[in-house]
Every structure is written in structure tokens, then in C-alpha cells.
Design brief:
Two copies of one chain form a homodimer. Chain A has 489 residues and is of the alpha/beta class. Chain A has three domains: 64 residues, Arc Repressor Mutant, subunit A (Orthogonal Bundle); 243 residues, Aspartate Aminotransferase, domain 2, CATH 3.40.640; 112 residues, Aspartate Aminotransferase, domain 1 (Alpha-Beta Complex). Chain A is built from 17 helices and 17 strands. In chain A, the strands form four sheets. In chain A, strands 3, 5, 6, 7, 8, 9, 10, 11 and 12 form a nine-stranded mixed β-sheet that branches. In chain A, a hairpin with a 7-residue loop joins strand 13 and strand 14. In chain A, helix 1 packs across helix 3. The interface between A and B is large, with 55 and 55 residues.
Chain lengths: 489, 489
């Protein structure tokens, strides 16, 4: 049984892509004919045709007249993925990189090619339907919603969220959920109820700078774990910090980590949960990207895999998928004492979210509008990431490594060691391009030659030219530094 | 020049009330005739008539056929106001009264007579006009506002807020303002940028329990100051704690303190500011009730009186006047370093408020809708507080003292010492009535015989019956405890 409904032709297309990725179909080889695929997969010819058209759009197949479909030379990415990271193995105070505030300022500047901020563009999100629900709620329910919500937030919204969690196998009660101002407040709440200032939190390395900001504001230290761009954190390293460093709190991504794009396989997640139980540690999981998966199945969050203990606090929001402007996130805990502390803190700091927005969002979820929307933007982001990866391949200097995320919309690039992406950022600005230098994603200073590209605005000519130009600038920087290091000898 | 535009007939009515309050016109005496007042005040006969009708509505005057208008016997309140409070003069950890969570739960129960919560009822607030602005914004600007605001919040909203501040004499730049999730987030932000856990904050006693919740969550201690129901905190006590206890942070109400209703006269505020400057301490002022004044002039906040130094952080919101459900508050600081820390914390915890709500609110303010609305609800709350005071006078046990707030919509009652209002609360619940026992407003335990009545739902027969019944229950409790103390002798 599939966790999510999906169009049959997308399944067929995904199957072909997996044949390419696994090497069964090599670039240049002939793909199965429409008749063959229709027979093998028991789909109609028109469904097979739809699948192949999708694959043409994605640049995986090309049609040759009178001859059938062939795997394109671009179908398989030749760039290496980054190696597993190797951060220092000791706790460190969080000091926010000064690069970051500069980057933040530019990441909303509409004059720049928007490869910086990871906020989907308003055009892509197309919230007309959601906004109609809000306009209707404002017209018809304005007065009755002009008050505070109960501390957990609007009940119907929590019911809708709980209903969605059931689909990926978690029994969550609306009572286990507290609505927050985005995923950020959810994570800050979670951190504040399980830590005290001065405590150490184990995190992925590199990690989203917004999390570093919350950790800093709460006076917490971080211990960065080696993290693989495919499989996520290194289990042996995790065991070590739990066993030897007395770390009691972890903050990990559920899937499509920002910026690496990594997702821990479920068997690894189960091992993490076993370690947490053994060392009585708590995991705060950030599932903000979970709904933006390219494959046939949604990755399963830690909370859904946890059976015996209650060591997981789950955080997510709708900010990456449909409505950053609605500021609706949520935190889930099945531990009553944690929920009580979370509500106390919520009352002490923000009291309540705007009930009208929550009511409108509940209407939108109940209408099925969100699921339709997700199907569309998953395609958009998969296409964007595919195109962006291929453009990186042809424009960036030799030796560049690039992540291969199976969801969300950011790429992590590791450039030749000599290239300083903070300096590249200044050059890019002069050329009207924004991105985020690697420094912003760690307190270790190890990612000065890395950068994150965001596909939050989808794929178009302007974006493509920006990536190409940035690749040229990076290549020039690599050549310059190679020449400089030669002349020093 | 008047600080605020106001209808002429309201000014005339306020003048007559002040003549009653000052004793120039005593109960039962004949008020000036319409012709006299028209001539004295240089207003038309119809304006004078409007003023007298307002005074009849307020129960200050009564018309006697063929004879003119007379001051009613109820016009002057005979109940004493509470004496200045006398809290213990040492720092104390904040422990939230267990009464409070019980009260919170019941204060939103529509089956109870709503004398508990201080959230204006949706019917009173009548937000149809504001909601229309929201509906329009959702229809026409939804997509462009579906993103994060800049960290300070929507610029137009900040401009409108700055424009209003000018009216009461403060030059505030939109750059000095950060939009928050209600006044609560503003105060929590302010506290978090000027204190560290374990520090002591000087507060009014009694004080709003929501502030105690924020202080507790931030790990702060409180030092409660003697506070007068008319004039606010005692200046000698403030000097003492600044000089001898090394207190560096104060959190005071700008006007109409919740629950006492006190407002410091401007000359006292100037003395407070001089003390702050001398001892290098910071004042966080809570001006959430400032727009709900009954008199001719808005009380001037501390920030507007401050000329030489920058020791004041100003906090307010629209939650008490028009839109608790919109969750829009703001914090003002003129110190760049404080603003920077505030924005860092905002980014770390809630990131941004919903831009669509902020844009709609800016439209509403620009339209003049807010000022019209304020004029209306000031009248409603003044009437409510007047009627409620008189009902307390005739229903509560002898010896009850009651505050005489010149704004906002709560009354503070000091009952005979023997009456325990926590026990009275349980009895009131059985009788379908909610209020807030005095325990909730202090960590000192000194207000167990006090209570707060809220006029947030305006005045009607159900409210009146509730106050009368509560008075009967309090009288019975007073009689019982008097009898018990006699039988013990």
C-alpha cells in the first residue's frame, strides 16, 4: 500500500529514473518502448506516453523520430557527491557568522538572481485558493475569531494535521499538537523545554543557520556530527557523543536536511531511536521539508518509527510548501509534562496565534487543496533541482562536488578547497547574484569552500544564467588561487 | 491644543463629571441648565443636550420634568479606594499561582458570566471594517504577501504606528519599532534583551499575571513595589531598590495598570526617569491600555517624557482596543544595540509575523477606522466601569474598597480581610460566574482577599446580575467568617 496517492504516470516515470540511477539504463541507451512499458507496468499506452513526456521534460529521455526514446547523456549526473563531513568532535559555543546578516539582507533583494533564500517564491506557491478561504473567513467569521485561540491553537487545524500524520503511520492526537509561529517557534519551544542554558545539543554538520540562531539565543552549545549528503549523520559518532560527552539533546532533520539534502534511511532512524532510548536522550526532529519528496514515498519521520519510548519531539510547518506568510507551524509531543511546559512558554511569549489564519488553513486542508498543491510543487522542485544540478555540472570548476537531494529545493556545493565562498559572494553580488556561503551553516569554520544554491524560485532562464555566471566566477576564482599557489612555490 | 480630537459634547460632559468628582456639584443638587452650559461653554444648545443625554446614560444626571437636570445620588462613588499596597521588600522567585491555570480555563467558558478575562468581547470590538480590509488584502495581495516580512515587520504598519505616537508627543521612527505577536511578545523581547536569568525586575504590586508568566519563563526574580490605585508606584520605594538592591530593570504600566487601574501623573513619571538615569536602570513600559482613557487627554507614556537619555523600552498592542485575534503588538527602542538584539531574538524564535494581517491593519489605521472605533469603545468602557462600580457599591459587603480607574475596563476590589477570594471563586463558579482572585496578581500572597472584575464584555443585565450575585456571595462569606471568628473567642 502506498503512503500517498500519486498519479500512475509519475510512478512509471520514477521507475525509469531509478533504472537510470542504478545503471540498468545507461546514458545513450535505448529506453523500453511505450508498448513494452505499457505491458510491463500494466498501464495504458496514454499513461506510458504521459510518463515519457514527463521524462523528456526532466531531461532524462529524448525522443528520436522513428526510433523511440533514448536515455540522454545528461541523465546521470557525473559530479561526485560531497564526502561525509568531518567537523571537530567537541562542544562549541554558537557564534553566528557575520556573513549571515549580510546574506539575509540580500536574500530578499528582488534585483538579485535569487539563489540565496530558501523561501519558495510567491508565484510558485500560488496561494489564490488558500487566500480565498482566508477572505471568506474574514468576511463571515471575523468577529467570532477575534479573540485568542486556546493555548494549543485552533482545534480543527490540529485535527487536520493529526489526520495527515496518520497517513505516514503516526497516531497523533490533536491534544499532542501545539500550533506555533512557523517551524522556528516549534523548534525554539522544543529546545527550551528540554534544555537549560549551557547544555550541549548534537546537530548535523552543516546545518540550517536558523537553527544555529535559536541555539545561540537559548544559550546552548552545539556538537556538530559528521553528516553524509545521502544518509545523514554518522551513527558511530552519535553513539560516541551520547556515551562519552553526556549529550542529552539532538536536533536532526527528518528528511532532506537543509543544506545537505540528506535523509537517513529508516533502518538508521531506528538505530538512532535505540541509541536515544539507551542513553535517555531526546531528539527534536525538524520535518519542514518532508512533504517535498521526489520519490514514490514520503520519508517516514522519527516519531512515526518510535514504538516503545517517547524520546522524540516533532516540529514542522507549512512555510516551505505553501504559505510562509501564514506563519503556521506545529510541535508534537506525546509526553504530557513536555506539552505542559511548552504551553506555559507559549503563553509567556506569544500567547496565541491569529485564529482567523488558522481557521482558514484548516478549511484549506479539509478541502484537499493542500494535497493538489503538493503534487504540483513536488514536480516543480524536482525539475528545478535536476536542471540546476546539470547546470552546475557544466559551469562550475573541475573538482566541484554537488549533493543529490531526493526532495526539497536546495543544492550543497563543495568547491575546490582554495575557493573562498565568502569572497565569491561579494563578487556574485556585483554580478547581481545571491547565494549563501558555506560559513553560515556551521560554527566550525569548515565550510568556507562550500555554498548553498536555492531553487526556491523554480527554474527559468534568469535563474539558469545566474547559475552559469556563478559557475564562471567560481572557476575564475579557482584558477586564480591555483596560479597564486603555484607562484608561491 | 488638544492631543486628541474629541467630540465637543464629550468634553462638556467630562467637565460636568469633573465638577461632581471635585465636589463642586454634590449629589442631589441641580446641574446648570442647558442654556447656562451652552453659554458658559460656547456650544450650541443641541451639543449641550447631547452632553446631558450622555450624562444621563452614565447615571451622573437625571432629568426631572419641568425642573431641569439633577446630579444623581449615585453620581459620586461612596466606596473607598484601596490603600497603597505593601508588598515585601525583597526579591522573590516567580512561582505562578496554581489558581491561575484554573481561572484561565474558565475565563473563556461562555456559560459563565464573564467577569474574569480582560479580553474585550468580539461583539464590543465589532471588527467588521477591519475584517473587510483583511478580506480585500487576501483577495488582492495574497500572493505578494505570502512571504516573510522584514524582521521589524511591515513598513507601512510601522509608519502608521509612528504617526500615532507623534500625536502624544513622541518622535518615533519606523526604524525604532519592531512588530510583535501582541504586547506579550513585545515585553518578553524587551525583558530578554536587557536581563539575564536570575536578575531582579522591579514591578508594580499587584501586577498583571501574564507579566509574571513571562518573568518566570525567563528565569527572572521580581521585587514588588508599593503601588497606589490612583498614582501608581511609590517613588521612595523605587529609589530604595535602585540604590540599595542594585535593581537594573523596571517593568511598569504606562497607564491604567492591570489590575489596579493606577496611572502615574506625568510629574511622577519625570521623577522615575530621573531615578533611572541616575542609577543606570532601564524601564520597560507596558502601554497596552493607554488608548482607552475616559478623560479629555491620553496619559503620556514614559517614552514621550524622556528627553535626555534612552532608558525606556515601550511596549503596546491593539489587543485590548480592537483586535486580540490579529496578534499585533510592537516594541519601541531608540537604542540601536537593543534593537539589534531584539531582531536577533525575533529571528531566532518567531522569524516574522503574518504580513497579510499587518498590511490589512495598516490599511485600517490609515483609513481612520481605528480612531472612530476608539471613540466608541472608550464610551462603552467608561459606562461599564461606572455602572459596575455602582453595582459593587450596593452589593458587596461593608468595608469593600474599589479602584477608580480613569481608563481601561477592570476594577480591583479589596474585600474584608477575612474573605478568601480563591474560595469565593469556587462558589462563584457554582453560581455560573467567573472573576480573577487576587492571588493571581502577585507572588507575595498578600492579595488573597482581593479580586479583579473585568468589564471586557460591556454592561448588560446578565453582567449586572452576575456582579450583584457575586456581591451577595462575598457578603455571605464575610458574615460567615465574622461569625466564625466570634465563636473562636
Amino acid at each position: 500500500m502506498r503512503a500517498h496517492p500519486q498519479f500512475r504516470y509519475e510512478e512509471v516515470a520514477n521507475l525509469v529514473v531509478s533504472l537510470v540511477d542504478s545503471g540498468t539504463l545507461s546514458p545513450g541507451s535505448r529506453a523500453p518502448s511505450l508498448r513494452e512499458i505499457s505491458k510491463q507496468q500494466q498501464v495504458s499506452l496514454s499513461t506510458a506516453l504521459q510518463a515519457y513526456r514527463l521524462l523528456e521534460d526532466r531531461g532524462v529521455l529524448e525522443a528520436r523520430p522513428q526510433s523511440g526514446h533514448y536515455v540522454t547523456s545528461r541523465a546521470a549526473l557525473r559530479l561526485e557527491p560531497p564526502a561525509i563531513t568531518n567537523p571537530p568532535g567537541r562542544p562549541a559555543a554558537v557564534v553566528i557568522s557575520p556573513t549571515l546578516s549580510k546574506v539575509m539582507q540580500y536574500s530578499v533583494d528582488p534585483r538579485l538572481v535569487p539563489l540565496g533564500g530558501a523561501i519558495p517564491s510567491a508565484e510558485l506557491l500560488a496561494t489564490a485558493r488558500l487566500d480565498r478561504f482566508l477572505a471568506r473567513a474574514a468576511r463571515t467569521k471575523g468577529a467570532s475569531y477575534n479573540t485568542y485561540t486556546e493555548p494549543r491553537g485552533d482545534l480543527r487545524l490540529r485535527q487536520e494535521i493529526a489526520r495527515r500524520a496518520v497517513r505516514w503511520g503516526t497516531a497523533v492526537s490533536p491534544e499532542d499538537i501545539v500550533i506555533t509561529s512557523g517551524c522556528m517557534e516549534a523548534i525554539a519551544l522544543a529546545l527550551s523545554i528540554v534544555t537549560r542554558p549551557g547544555a550541549t545539543v548534537a546537530i548535523e554538520s552543516p546545518t540550517y543557520f536558523g537553527l544555529l540562531r535559536s541555539l545561540e539565543a537559548l544559550g546552548l552549545k552545539v556538537l556538530e556530527l559528521p553528516t553524509d549528503a545521502a544518509d545523514g549523520i554518522d551513527l558511530a559518532a552519535l553513539k560516541n557523543v551520547l556515551e562519552r560527552k553526556g549529550v542529552k539533546t539532538c536536533l536532526f532533520s527528518s528528511s532532506f536536511n537543509n543544506p545537505l539534502g540528506s535523509t537517513m534511511p529508516s533502518e538508521n532512524k531506528l538505530k538512532v531511536l535505540a541509541l536515544l532510548a539507551r542513553y535517555r536522550a531526546t531528539l527534536i526532529e525538524d520535518d519542514i521539508n518532508g512533504d517535498i519528496y521526489f520519490g514514490p514515498q514520503r520519508p517516514v519521520p522519527f516519531m512515526a518509527l518510535e514504538r516503545s519510548a517517547n524520546n522524540v519531539i516533532y516540529c514542522s510547518s507549512f512555510s516551505k510548501t505553501v504559505a510562509p506568510g501564514y506563519r503556521i507551524g506545529w510541535m508534537v509531543t506525546k509526553t504530557a509534562a513536555q506539552m505542559e511546559r511548552a504551553l506555559e512558554r507559549k503563553l509567556a511569549f506569544t500567547l496565541s496565534g491569529p485564529p482567523l489564519l488558522q481557521a482558514a488553513f484548516a478549511d484549506f486542508l479539509a478541502s484537499g487543496g493542500y494535497d493538489n498543491h503538493l503534487r504540483r510543487i513536488r514536480r516543480v522542485f524536482e525539475y528545478t533541482i535536476g536542471q540546476m544540478s546539470r547546470t552546475v555540472e557544466r559551469s562550475f570548476p573541475a573538482g566541484t562536488k554537488v549533493s543529490r537531494p531526493a526532495g526539497s529545493f536546495v543544492l550543497w556545493l563543495e568547491l575546490p578547497k582554495s575557493v573562498r565562498t565568502a569572497a565569491l559572494f561579494d563578487e556574485a553580488l556585483k554580478n547581481g547574484i545571491c547565494f549563501v556561503p558555506g560559513d553560515a551553516f556551521s560554527v566550525s569554520g569548515r565550510y568556507g569552500h562550500c555554498l548553498r544554491l536555492s531553487g526556491a524560485h523554480g527554474w527559468n532562464e534568469r535563474i539558469e544564467k545566474g547559475v552559469v555566471k556563478l559557475g564562471d566566477l567560481a572557476s575564475a576564482a579557482a584558477t586564480r588561487s591555483a596560479a597564486a599557489s603555484l607562484s608561491k612555490r
